[in-house]
User: What shape does this take?
Amino acid sequence: MFGYSLGELGSILVMQGFSGLILFSVYLLMALGLAIIFGQMGVINMAHGEFMILGAYMTYFCSHLFASYLPGLYAGYFFVAMIVAFIASGTAGLIVEWALIRRLYARPLDTLLATWGLSLIMQQAFRSGFGAREVGVELPPWMMGSLQVTDTIEVQINGLFVMGLTLLITAGVAVLMFKSRWGLQVRSVMANRTMAGAVGIDTRRVDRLTFGLGCGIAGIAGSAFTMIGSTGPTAGQLYIVDTFLVVVFGGAQSLLGTIASALTISQSQSTLEFFLTGSMAKVITLLIVIGILMLRPQGLFALKVRR
Amino acid sequence: MSSEKPTGNLLVPTRRQLLAGAATLSATAMLPNLARADVPLTSAVNTTGLAVTDTEVTVGILHSVTGTMAISETGSVEAEKLAIDQINAQGGVLGRKIKFIQEDGASDWPTFAEKAKKLLVQDKCAAVMGCWTSASRKAVLPVFEQYNGMLYYPTFYEGLEQSKNVIYTGQEATQQILAGLNWVEKEKGAKTFYLLGSDYIWPRTSNKIARKHIENVLKLKVVGEEYFPLGSTQFNSVINKMKLVKPDVIYAIIVGGSNVAFYKQLKAAGIDLTKQTLMTISVTEDEILGIGGENIVGAYACMKYFQSLDNPNNKAFVPAFKKMWGEKTVIGDVTQAAYLGPWLWKLTAEKAGSFDIDKIAAASPGVEFKGAPEGYVRIHENHHLWSKTRVGRARLDGQYDVIYETAELMEPNPFPKGYQ
Assistant: This one.
């Protein structure tokens, strides 16, 4: 890294810090839905990536709809697409919970297998419905390109967009969890399911809504990721490993843990990537995560739960 | 036999002539081979018990139509079916219609091996068109060698392989890399290169060849070389690094879903490919469907075939393909290479006068296909194809403008000396 002027190095440092923040937002957005579901009911949703891709396909669908029927409003289609993605993935989540997950609450390992099977089914459904090839989601022009901050510093617009979106959704989830009546119910079910049931909380209903909400957020994430990634039947698989990493590392059942974990992983990944190669950065990030999990098997933050 | 009697003028038929005509009809119906006296006997063209009858010959198609690789392999399946259709419309191979049995490798390498065995042992296929990734080819290779089958493999790949039982209709690495690098040095005055790739054998071997060529032959400089795990979706760090070192050429061999992420992020980071030279050997028209033309416009790709190629063969091939598979389909390099498979096999069988695997393998070198959409190809002694290398520049609409092609056919050299 020598032989460059200080100014150049400085601006690279800024841009690199910014890419770390983008990565952080991406990880957090991916993990939020899964973390809510895992924290609430201990269900590991292996089909999380597919719910994301459902959202991405909805975005694709919306972009075509707007391009053909409402070309005047094309610049704003992305916002509509995110709402559609939330509704589609959320509804799919509610149906899945009703048809499959609720029968398996007593058997966590079986939910793992069942949701994995579900992910395969969804992949093949996408393939039959939308074709085996990847689809290109076109973005409104204002979302492309970058802002020139100084001569050498450029900031990606879609990066800013993802960061804003993540902030908004995280804040929304936090308010929902800690300020609303429903959040109180969720937290009490989390703390002690039997007691919560005994004092009159409809735990089944709470479960279903939580699952739907988690899947819906996955849908929004998928919609946002059409800006940075691919949309194809198996693209969900690209995200699932990182998502699990963030959730497990952060400690299940803790929103704060998920945020801290996404921050740690993204910053180490992005810094290491700059000094090493992509593959080596991943290896070292994983080693760090394994090391910390050996010392703290419950993850970074864990709620005190009576067992 | 009555069929030899003249049945010509029936304008004013006599009773006797009518009877004779009727006799002719029934005779031809009962003995179809009499009408096609040039068809060689099955016992002559098939001495090893392959699935060949008097009217039909069976081949296998073995690709992934489910799983991760279905994205890539769909085009190959379509091209092979089109070729088989066209060959049948022209009367088939050695007077026999081609019937195909399709199996799904399901993007899983052991499944490929299992299905290959089924196609060879149970179905006795005279040839198999199939595989896409090197991993799947490596998985089926022992099966083809053990049961003596014939595989037509369409994908450009890293080389370092040669088998009596495989015809490689795609380019091996040197055919795809060297001419492109020479071109970029000469036309763009490039001095420094940044090599990128997904982390598995093909990009690594290809970049190794590229690096040797850049450093030892062209005497230029490689200023960076990096690999990313398959499926990686974050490229901001490496893009920042490239902004710092400012290479003349970005040489990218990124595959699959990562491809889309890479080009979208490149564009978002303000790297304009109409100004920054980027050369790739992994993005065909198929991949651009997912990437989006607006994200890759201006990039150079080094292939042997582009859909926009201007020659009579291709002008017939593209509409035929679209007619069969839909107006919206695009044809990439590998799809065209897959289309060559059935045709090369037909021409080889006709040259050998036999379907026997050993005779096909022996007759293959020297077989030329003048109707190839890429122009002209010929099989080399090492079972790879002589073909031209071309450089295309990505357009906004997802097609390439062909801006350079080698004057001569490039010799396939799967074991390049000095490049390993």
Remarks:
- Chain A touches chain B through 52 residues (CB under 8 Å).
- The first helix of chain A runs from residue 6 to 41.
- Chain A has eleven helices and two strands.
- The longest strand of chain A covers residues 146-148.
